[in-house]
Write a structure and sequence with these properties.
1 helix, extended, two-stranded antiparallel ribbon
């Protein structure tokens, strides 16, 4: 059997391992992180929460059926 040659979508910006988590960087650039480095950043408080508007609006929908 032939071994699978699947590759990760990116390389971790912190440690250089396979990365699957994409973060938006400064000036619209994308930064990839592995799960280990992502959790390290979260523990250190280096991740900035994203403010979203319009989610969970109070408007009700009308059922048609």
């Amino acid at each position: 059997m032939e071994e699978s040659t699947k590759k990760a979508p990116g390389i971790c910006a912190d440690c250089g391992d396979d990365a699957y988590i994409r973060l938006s960087g400064e000036n619209g650039s994308a930064e990839m992180l592995c799960a280990h480095c992502f959790s390290d950043r979260a523990r250190l408080g280096k991740l900035v929460p994203v403010k979203r508007s319009g989610i969970g609006s109070a408007s009700r929908t009308q059922r048609l059926s």
